[in-house]
Amino acid sequence: MEREAVAVIAGNAEGLALVLSQSLSFWGGIDVATGRIIDANHPDRGETVTGRILVMPSGRGSSSSSSVLAEAIRRKTAPAGIILARTDAILAVGAIVADMLYAVRMPLVVGDTEGLVSDLPTEIRDVGASCCVIRQDARTGGDR
Amino acid sequence: MLDGEKGAAAGMAMAMLVRFCAALGAEKLLDITRAHIDGCLYHGQAGLDFVDRLVALGGKVHVPTTLNVGSIDLIHPELMRVKREDEDPMRRLMSAHLALGCAPTFTCAPYQTRFRPRFGEQIAWGESNAIVFANSVIGARTNRYGDFIDLCCALTGRAPAWGLHLEANRRGQILYEFVGLSASRAASDSLYVAVGLLIGEKSGDHVPVIKGLPPPRDEDQLKALGAAAASAGSVAMFHAVGITPEAATVGEAFGGRKPDQTITISEADLAQALARLSKVPDGSPISAVSLGTPHFSLDEWRRLIPLLRRLRPQRDIPIYVNTGRDTLSELDRSGELAESRGFGVRPVADTCTYVTAILKEIEGVVMTNSGKWAHYAPGNIGVTVAFGELEDCVRSAAIGRVTRGA
Asked: Checking CA distances to B52, which of B13, B114, B168, B317 falls within 20 to 30 Å?
């Protein structure tokens, strides 16, 4: 499947998708040292976001999530890219700061997340003009 | 400014603001008169790298700028249970902000300082309770700013022209009405906490309008309401009809439109909201009391001190009071601080007991009169909370057990 999305932070990334049914607050929600989800109330507690294409409805909670995302990008424990159904200024700030300070560009795109499935190889590709293409391969086996 | 004519740091801050505007869909910037920076809590190296970069580029704030709490109490370092090597970056983050020209207020209640904005001022404030207070109680105008962006606004004196900076977005959306409010509830501080929790849970990021709120004794009750609302939800502004400055009437609060939704608040709703804050029954032993989230005002101190004199807590149960350093100096000059210490009061400045390691080794129950503290402390520092009125907290410290409504 291939579809277009609005690039909040344009860039290229690929990894296995991690689709969360609930938005995750990075502050208090992930362990920045390991990338693991630690929010006791989150249904995907225990999963690791590192290197994944993180898919969720939006951001959530404290503005300190900007700092935590920037720090995760610095430590290389962050997702490879983030796809949101609704835009989130707090996560955008974290990604912009990491790009400016460390020249690490973690793409953050907003688009239709319907039908994206966890654990399938997923790609975000910059096609210019604030637009990215999301591509998810439906193949099974292999990496799983 | 982007090309560095106001200096390289302002150029970097402007570049970030431009990218932020693009992410939001804001088309232009507006001038601001003040900023309040919530960047002094240490969340990792990235936050320090950002401020250090601005300092290295010679950055200075462009408007009067206050600082929110940091990770350590610089006035009472003996309270901190942090390893030396962990403390170093926390201190450096606080001092790097001073190098940018921010005022060393280190308070979550900048509206209690001489930097308080006036009605109608466009400002860029971080810290959720301060944002609600500025918009709702003062009628100044700010969005929910936070990490990094608040500092970019301070360095440039500009903010994106969107959200609550604009008149049209300040109109109320959801109407809250009381049914059967008892006289005893109406006279309590906890009414304001409970209302805050309820509107926070039910309003999302919409603007709530409260009709029939009993006139508050002072602005500290509205402070508690806003802080609870911003903890339980994403409320950045509320109107209280006949009380807050943009809501003389229901019609004004809604800008002449009809509410999208009307929600009633019953006595039972209020009681349940408060009950959820307490995890232990009356009579449970307590280990400490924590007051002053948001920071205790001078008025609150002057309500606490007579209670201390009357109830005389002396059981070695510490009563932590988070407060601004300027408020503390005032109490020190009058001798009231020394007297309070005699009753077990341990003042905490520059930080707050739920974001630091002050209470880290405390086992057991901590009692508070703050809805915000009760909401966050269990997750942040792993304590068990009992919620009560200010007088309940002091009496419980004197007796050593949770005692309410005596």
From this structure: B114
CA distances from A124 to A113, B20, B52, B343 (A): 13, 21, 32, 61
Beta-carbon contacts of residue B131 (< 8 Å; ≥ 6 apart): B125, B142, B143, B144, B145, B230, B236
Whole-complex ipTM = 0.89
Q: Do B146 and A98 touch (CB under 8 A)?
A: no
CA distance B255 to A120: 49
Which is catalytic among the residues A62, A64, A67, A118?
A62
* B-chain residues near A40 (CB < 8 A): 379
Burial (0-12, 13-18, 19+ Cβ within 10 Å), B33: middle
8 Å CB contact between B208 and B246: no
A67:B148 CB<8 A: yes
When scoring A32, A96, A110 by the number of chain B Cβ atoms within 10 A, the one with the most, hence best to mutate, is A96
pLDDT in tens, B339-361: 999 999 999 999 999 888 777 66
Cα-based distances in Å from A25 to A21, B28, B34, B326, B404: 13, 29, 28, 34, 35
- A28 interaction partners in chain B (CB closer than 8 Å): 379-380
Taking CA–CA distances from B129, the nearest residue in chain A reads A62
Residues A108-119, buried b or exposed e (16+ Cβ, 10 A)?
A: bbbbebeebeee
The answer to whether B50 contacts A101, with C-beta atoms less than 8 Å apart, is yes
Q: Token match 């006289």: residue?
A: B183
Q: B208: how many CB neighbours lie within 10 A of its CB?
A: 29
